[in-house]
Amino acid sequence: MNGNFDRTLSSEDVMRRRATLLQRLHVDGILLLLLLVLAAGSLFVLYSASGKSWDLLAKQASSFGIGLVAMVVIAQFEPRFLARWVPAGYVIGVLLLIVVDVMGHNAMGATRWINIPGVIRFQPAEFMKILMPATIAWYLAKRSLPPRLKHVIVSLAMIAVPFILVVRQPDLGTSLLILASGTFVLFMAGLQWRWIAGAVAAVVPVAVGMWMFVMHDYQKQRILTFLDPESDPLGTGWNIIQSKAAIGSGGVFGKGWLLGTQSHLDFLPESHTDFIIAVLGEEFGLVGICLLLLVYLLLIARGLVITAQAQTLFGKLMAGSLTMTFFVYVLVNIGMVSGLLPVVGVPLPFISYGGTSLVTLLSGFGVLMAVHTHRKWIAQV
Amino acid sequence: MPQPIRLKDHEKDARLVRNRVIVGAVAVLLLTAVLVARLYYLQVIQYEYHSTLSENNRVHVQPVPPTRGLIFDRNGVVIADNRPSFSLTVTRERTGDWEQVLDVIVEVLGLSADDRELFEKRMKQGRRPFEPVPILFELSEEQIARIAVNQFRLPGVEVVAQLVRHYPQGAHFAHSVGYVGRINEKELKELDPINYSGTHHIGKTGIERFYEPELHGQVGYEEVETNARGRVLRVLKRTDPKPGKDIVLTLDIRLQEAAEAALGGRRGAVVAIDPRTGEVLAMVSQPSFDPNLFVTGISFKDYAELRDSLDRPLYNRVLRGLYPPGSTIKPVVAVAGLDAGVITPATRVFDPGFYQLPNYDHKYRNWNRSGDGWVNLETALMRSNDTYFYDLAHKMGIDRLHQYLSRFGIGQRVSLDMFEEATGLMPSREWKRITRRQVWYPGETLILGIGQGYMQTTPLQMAQATALVASRGKWIRPHLARTIEGQPPVDPNPMPDIVVRDPSYWDQARNGMEQVMHGARGTARKVGETAAYRIAGKSGTAQVVAIRQGERYDRSKLQERHRDHALFVGFAPAENPRIAVAVMVENGESGSGVAAPVVKQVMDAWLLGEDGQLKPEYRSPPTSPEPSR
After folding, report:
1. Which of B327, B415, B471, B592 is catalytic?
2. Which residues of chain A have pLDDT under 70?
3. Is B15 a member of any domain?
4. Which one, B36, B253, B309, B418, has the greatest CB density within 10 A?
5. CA of B89, closest CA in chain A: separation in Å?
6. Is residue B289 included in any domain, yes or no?
7. Within chain B, which residues score under 70 in pLDDT?
8. Are residues B492 and B587 in the same domain?
């Protein structure tokens, strides 16, 4: 034993040999397992929600494959290396958003995409979901914690620019996620509680003042319908009434796979994208949703462990923010479909149909893996 | 004092982040618990509620369209109401193959391929999923029975009772009240999609169009439970719609009918206005059409017939018809001349039968080739002497003429609430420079003085100009709505009253017009002789084809449709005006011979009691400051 111990410590080669394939690929086994479980579940639910469309499943599966490749590629880079490219990435990201803004106003419509026909077509806002926390983490990691007022203000300014540009697209869901990912970095960096309390306390009177003195009646009406969609049952409220009935009629164990009635027959216009949880709730019941939530919680738990174990401050802030933002996806999506929150376009992570969000999410997990697997050996003991 | 050097304390940073991780974990757990609680509430506590709805049944939100406001004439006679009517609706999502279902409908009802095409077009107008789209209206009993027998072959097809607009007075008010029709794609884009979600019809012209927001009302909705075949089983929740506002019109159906009878089948227009209030009492454009044809969609054949008819029944002559006012404008020009100071009541002009501008050869003819000799203002109006008014217009000049006539509403929209009223044209130097790139010639001013040339007016404008002479310059925009849900309409853009230097100028104009009817040499004395009260009137002629210099108007050479339009305007009782009328008879040729009797018949219908005498309320002249004649 003693002899072995000596050799183990002194020789990295032995450790290398012991490293599994996953470790050599810089992939975290727990995260990978949970992601594969979600992907499999997603295909099941999508098959039902899409009206048994193999075509759709094939597309979703291939997006998942592309996302996994992106995840593994990103995991190969050392966080320190990634951090070096963050400021340039942020500047380019913001410039692309401005390009989209200007083009959109000229072309009327199609305001989210950058499209060079035959070459590439993408939404710059999606990149921002990862670049945003990276930028704030890069900025704060060089400074002492908790951040001082000056640094908080600079951070908020850096969050505000892409946030406002995305709101103008208009894409409320994505802008909210960008805002969350940036502010979670501040939170993880130990933003002082009294400042948080102060910000909340300041928002209330400003909002009340705007409401009473600045806003027009039609604007107030729009906000009221936004906050309470069911007051507008012929508009957005229609979706909510239908999705609530779908979820509620699922009961504890659900009606069984492919046996949902509410969510088929086109009652839910977005049953395979943002409102897919209604299909899941109807066919698999409370048990099904709770199982899904359990998988999500395990993912989040793993993410928080990675945050706590990260060696660099940049890694910690980045991992913490990505994990918490992931939770925001879940919370906002299920909250809006079940009628708790206003309707903003946020997909249910890994379950909703949509290639772009899959690739972005998996890239985020790639960053988490990079943070975790590039630690120095000494600390892993 | 030197600042202490800040060192980066990695241990402290790590501790700080770890604390935040714990806070985050707690928050995640708490919020997840909230989500689970919400799902527990929906799926366990409310399970019964939701599952009953879902067990073979569906929750469905459907809009409840508001009832369209009714339209009455001034006496409360219904002009537009809503009649229950059976329509055939198709809910595309429940049909399986909707094209095949349409085939079955066509087969069962024995319809044509044209109808099939129409159905397909209407199906495409569906706006929301699960919306029953009406494709056929006014089903007969037999059609309903045929559908019922074949119901098993027609999934998603239903016969529903709907309120559909109906115009019990038929063609009488087609040009004033207008009609509703199915919402077309262009209108759909501009409408409030929520408020119109249950509405299939919208005002297309006339009052129905102008007061569309008031007549429509506010949509309601109900949450209903339907079975798998789409039949409503029960209503879960209901918010009632707010019905549209009722409108009482200023029109009087008896006067309207009398005016139509007075025209007697000829093409033309009649407008009657109460000069004290601006209320339009009758508005006739003949020929007319049955507005009910348009409500549920007019057939191609019927529409082609209306559209291609030489008599142009769809053409609104009152609001869209443009005619030179001819001599009917002379009373207005007279007031303008008096106020501008270029003439006095005593001014005399010698008429040899024509007028010549100094240094020009061109002879501007009086209609009476032999001339009227010396004429003053009264005679000029009575005899409709052109020479006097050539001279007057020449003295005024185009600029002042334009200014005065514009104040009487020529060349602009005069009505308060009429849809698509034409502006007409009151020419000016400026106008000619811009549109024709030419300077104004003095000769063009002369013919404006007798209402010819570039000037174009609608019958409504002629009636309003006459009403202004009757009301001594008091401007109230002519309007069709008397009250909207009890409230009179408000004019957002009132015209300024016409104030003249001496109010007696109005009397000069009126006096001349009375002489037209009652003077020994008045042009319309034959009509005036038969009147039971005094009328102030003026005839006019609107040329259809131009007559060249030196040529004479020879009716035998002209086709019927190239003959002049006969015009006549007037108000009565002359000393206490209660009604101002303008009449245009298309190709009627003689203002005083053809149009004047129509004017008098309309006035009689309004002013005379059953005993053939002036109704008592119109008899005594009001105590007015005007000097006694």
Report:
1. B327
2. 1-19, 104-111, 115-121, 218, 234-236, 262-270, 377-381
3. no
4. B418
5. 19
6. no
7. 1-8, 53-59, 126-130, 226-231, 545-558, 620-629
8. yes
Do residues B348 and B497 share a domain?
yes
Q: State the sign of the Cα–Cα–Cα–Cα dihedral A290, A294, A296, A297.
A: positive
| B288 among known catalytic residues | no
- Please indicate, yes or no, whether residues B514 and B388 belong to a single structural domain of this protein: yes
Residue contact B35–A320, C-beta within 8 A? no
Both B333 and B244 in one domain: the answer is no
In a shared domain, residues B345 and B206: no
Verify that B326 and B194 share a domain, yes or no. Answer: no
Verify that B415 and B504 share a domain, yes or no: yes
- For chain B, the domain total comes to 2
d(CA B241, CA B66) in angstroms, rounded, equals 5
Interface test with A, best of B3, B6, B7, B17 (most A CBs within 10 A): B17
What pLDDT is attached to residue B228? 56
Q: Which residues of B touch A237 (CB under 8 A)?
A: 61
Residues 6+ apart with CB under 8 A from A176: A328, A332, A344, A346
Q: Which residues of chain B does A282 touch, with a Cβ-Cβ cutoff of 8 Å?
A: 54
- Among A235, A300, A340, whose Cβ lies nearest the Cβ of B28? A300
- Bridge-based pairing of strands B132-136 and B78-91 is antiparallel
Closest listed residue to residue A79, CA positions, set A298, A305, A317, A302: A317
Residue B491 CB coordination number (10 Å): 14
First CA to last CA across chain B, in angstroms? 109
- From the candidates B42, B45, B219, which should be mutated to test the interface with A, based on the most A CB atoms within 10 A? B42
Calpha distance A117→A313 (Å, rounded): 41
Q: Would you say B258 and B602 are in contact if contact means Cβ atoms under 8 Å apart? A: yes
pLDDT at position B208, please? 94
CB burial string A341-355: b at 16+ within 10 A, e below: bbbbbbbbbbbbbbe
Chain A contact set for B218 (CB, 8 A): none
Question: Residue A132 in 3-state DSSP?
Answer: helix
The whole-angstrom separation of Cα B423 and Cα A121 is 53
Does residue B211 sit within a domain?
Answer: yes
CA distances from A160 to A95, A149, A153, A157, A168 (A): 14, 16, 10, 5, 12
Amino acid at A7: R
Quick one: pLDDT at residue A108? 43
Name the domain boundary from B200, B218, B249.
Answer: B249
Q: Which of chain B's residues have a Cβ under 8 Å away from the Cβ of A340?
A: 34-35, 38
B163/chain A closest Cα distance in angstroms? 21
Is residue B210 domain-shared with residue B328, that is, in the same domain?
no
A317 → chain B, closest CA residue: B17
Name the residue range of residue B80's domain.
Answer: 64-227+238-249
Is residue B555 a part of any domain in this protein? yes
Report the complex ipTM: 0.89
pLDDT of res. A267: 57
Q: Which chain B residue shows the shortest CA-CA distance from A147?
A: B13
What's the CATH number where B159 sits? 3.90.1310.10
- Hey, where are the domains in chain A? 28-380
Asked if A136 and A143 touch (Cβ cutoff 8 Å), the reply is: no
